[in-house]
Amino acid sequence: MHFRFMPLEPLSAEEMRRIDENCVGLGISKLQLMENAGKAVAECVKHLYKGSRDSSKTIAIICGLGNNGGDGFVAARHLSRDFAVHVVLVGHEKALKTEESRKNWKILEHLDHSVTLYQGASIFGPESPLTKLEGYDLLVDAILGTGLAGPVREPERTVIHVINQAKIKKLSVDVPSGYRTETAVDSDYLVAFHGLKAGTRSKGTTVCDIGIPLEAELCTGPGDLLLHRRAESHKGENGRVLIIGGGLYPGAPTFAAMAAMRSGADIVTVASPNAEIIAGFSPNLIVRKMGIDRITTRDVESLIELIAKHDSVVLGPGLGADAETIRATSALITASDNLTLDADALRGLASSEYEGGRIAVTPHLGEFAALTGAEVPSTLQERIEAVKAFSREWGVITLLKGRIDIISDGTKYRLNKTGNAAMTVGGTGDVLAGLVGGLSTSLDKMQAASAAAYLNGRAGDLAYSRFGYGLLATDVIDRIPDVLSGRSQ
Predict the structure, then answer these.
(1) What is the 3-state secondary structure (H, E, C) of 388-438?
(2) Are the beta carbons of 252 and 342 closer than 8 angstroms?
(3) What is the mean pLDDT of the chain?
(4) Which residue from 112, 55, 50 is spatially nearest to 87, judged by alpha carbons?
């Protein structure tokens, strides 16, 4: 068993969920991760007792109904040969929330010689460990993990109160149950998986490797698409996106707009000189006429008013590179506080004033070379460094499109490996820009760019499986819902 100490940055609950789901995308099951986590807990317990095998030592493992409890079930199995193990399930087995937890509980039911189980109402009875915790050598807290939302409820609240009142050494699994609430286990030891979680302490903590590969953290995957919305939400609350483009190419802003709609945005408006043409493509879009045959500085005031009514702006698809249009672009960049820049609009970046961290740019290799004034490096690692340096210098999130997409905010970077050679067809870059814009209404720019890169490429892969090299940008858009719903896995 290998132990390592604190990573540089604690992981948020959302980041850990993303990593776990990306493991599944790589073929590593949640059952495997649970097995590795539970074994890590058991190894840490044995380490506390210097590797001794003493059946006179008694361990109470208090488990919840989710995967944190499942980790406790696995730990119980691994400890059952060396110690007297008593497992308390806070609730009833019928209420276990995941298949992985249910499977590991069923295993414990067969271990009636080495493991004693308590569940349901009996956990507060006279024979339950909870009524005589001081008689145990160690308590393992596996009640609530990072998935807790809101305050701790009953019966977990009472159980945590009982645990904290007991004079017994306590070891928490991944996080102290109820952490970041008013009802949290006051543990002496903490066994964290993969990395310390934000909001937990470092003293008395061991971080254990549970077999999560670098790719699950570094590369995009299905975990990047863990998108949520309130059941009570109403029209417009889940994002209003404005697409500014067209003039030269009316199809480009249409592709971007339809992709933004498919990403889950409630309302998408297209501001374009080609308003009549775009309106004919789909009744789902709101279309505003701007300019005559191109967008100019005369349209800036009206566009700024429109920008203020939207949560996210995509600027550039099909815009054209006329000098007057680029001057208008510079003014619009300055006026936007949640912006995705694509295609010809990238030319306006150098002459604009803006706050760092609020703009995502989506250049292809040629556009990136024009922005940096240098040839794009040929090796992946050199490209990563070039993208990081550009993002840092310009204060933007960069999504460099290529065989492997590179996303960076200047410090962190992500890689996206989805997509295929058929996606060189016109319009797929506009689809990507629309996805970044749509996802930016609910995610920060780095998250939105990473999720959009994965979503665009995965939808393109599904389209390719049917149409081969004859796929169209509209085919990619049509497969976005399949990816978001999980039907592509």
Answers:
(1) HHHHHHHCCEEEECCCCEEEECCCCEEEECCCCHHHHCCCHHHHHHHHHHH
(2) no
(3) 94
(4) 112
Contacts of 436 (CB under 8 A, 6+ apart): 314, 340, 360, 362, 399, 448, 449, 452
Interior angle at CA 335, CA 330 and CA 336, nearest 5: 100
Contacts of 283 (CB under 8 A, 6+ apart): none
Read off the DSSP letter of residue 248: S
For the record, the structure tokens of 182 come out as 């008013």
Q: How far apart are CA 329 and CA 220, in angstroms?
A: 31
Residue with tokens 């499109």: 401
At 254, the amino acid letter reads T
One-letter amino acid at 475 equals D
Tokens of 363: 């250049």
Q: Quick: pLDDT tens for 289-320.
A: 999 999 999 999 999 999 999 999 999 999 99
List the strands of the sheet with 58-63, edge to edge: 3-4, 205-208, 189-193, 170-173, 138-142, 58-63, 84-89, 115-119
For the segment 422-430, the average pLDDT, to the nearest whole number, is 97
Q: Which CATH class is domain 230-484?
A: alpha beta
CA dihedral 148, 151, 157, 161 (to 10 degrees): 100
Expressed in percent and rounded to 5, the helix, strand and coil fractions of the chain are 45, 15, 40
- Residue 167 pLDDT greater than 90, yes or no: yes
Pick one of 3.40.50.300, 1.25.40.10, 3.40.50.10260, 3.30.950.10 as the CATH number of 3-218: 3.40.50.10260
Q: Which are the contacts of 442, defined by CB distance < 8 A and separation ≥ 6?
A: 227, 229, 238, 239, 264
What pairs with residue 68 in β-bridges? none
Q: Report the DSSP beta bridge partners of residue 267.
A: 240
Domain boundary assignment for the chain? 3-218, 230-484
